[in-house]
Amino acid sequence: MTDPSPAPARLTLRRPDDWHVHLRDGDLLAAVAPATAHQFARAIVMPNLSPPITTTAAAAAYRERIVAALPQDSRFTPLLTLYLTDHSDPADIEQGHADGVVTACKLYPAHATTNAAAGVSDLALLDPVFATLERIGMPLLLHGEVTDRAVDIFDREAVFLERHLAPLLRRFPGLRVVLEHITSADAADFVRSWGPNLAATITPHHLHINRNAMFQGGLRPDFYCLPVAKRERHRLALRAAAVSGHPRFFLGTDSAPHRRHAKEAACGCAGIYNAPYALESYAAVFEAEQALERLEAFASEFGPQFYGLPLNDGTVTLERRPQLVPLRLAHPSASGAMEELVPFHGGEQLAWRLMT
Ligand code: NCD
Ligand code: ZN
Hints:
Blueprint: E1 10-14, E2 17-21, H1 26-39, E3 42-45, H2 56-68, E4 77-83, H3 90-98, E5 102-107, H4 127-136, E6 140-142, H5 156-171, E7 177-179, H6 185-193, E8 198-202, H7 204-208, H8 232-243, E9 249-251, H9 260-263, H10 278-288, H11 295-307, E10 315-324, E11 329-332, E12 338-341, E13 349-355
Parallel strand pairs: 2-3, 3-4, 4-5, 5-6, 6-7, 7-8, 8-9
Antiparallel strand pairs: 1-10, 10-13, 11-12
Bound molecules: N-carbamoyl-L-aspartate and zinc ion.
């Protein structure tokens, strides 16, 4: 037997993108946007603000606020999305796409997750929107969970696939769909089995944790997100999909910051804040799966290829240089008082470090 090749000390990748992130607004935007801009060249920015970004005009204004929150020398490009409602206007979507203001539309089933109350109550209502997206080649991004309370929360993604996604894809065979933040073997199998118009993003946290993390020694709100983490066999299926080199699985962090007091509450918010160490987190997974050579395609190639966008110029470098992730990150709120965010991997040591 030959010795395994020595572990590399550096990893250089084409500049990567995040195909699903929540950048929030106001003081929280100012606190979190630089982390994403540091890690990624571009990001698909979710529109679930309060009120949500439902029009092209609102998206253009939000883009200005994002850019204003970045360091002066930042080369980061936010890619804006529209939040679909029962009353979305296909003409505005088409105009926003033609003007280059919006890149995709996001569909939240009504009440599925944070700020989804104004989401879509019945997919059939949106057939004119889907027909427009199909015609203009604009991707539809799906939060893929049923909201039927009779369905167990751990089954809501799997039920969505058969109840809603398959019929939608059959009705609009030319529609390009990204099933966001998949959490189950069922979803990974579904994406693989479908044609070239269906892809999925995979988060770092769903590659690292299973549902036990939420209950380890007590209730752990920092591991609560939606769709909720599933059993170990699903985590393993997601890891296999992510490192497989299949071009329809790509990077989307679903970094979803909530202030610490909003997470550690009687009714805590769903969302994991992973932006500051996202690449390091994915690198840990690809290394453990002996697939570091496939990280670049997952992080930097498959996403733009699916969206029909150019690959980024330039590179980033990860060094094998252990770093301890802080337990908390402090930032000033609008009132000047300090607030805290808990980063994913807080208190752990990560083997890789993104160099500037
Ligand atoms: C997201 C948020 O907080 O905006 N939360 C989450 O748990 N992922 C919403 C979402 O993407 O479902
Ligand atoms: Zn999200």
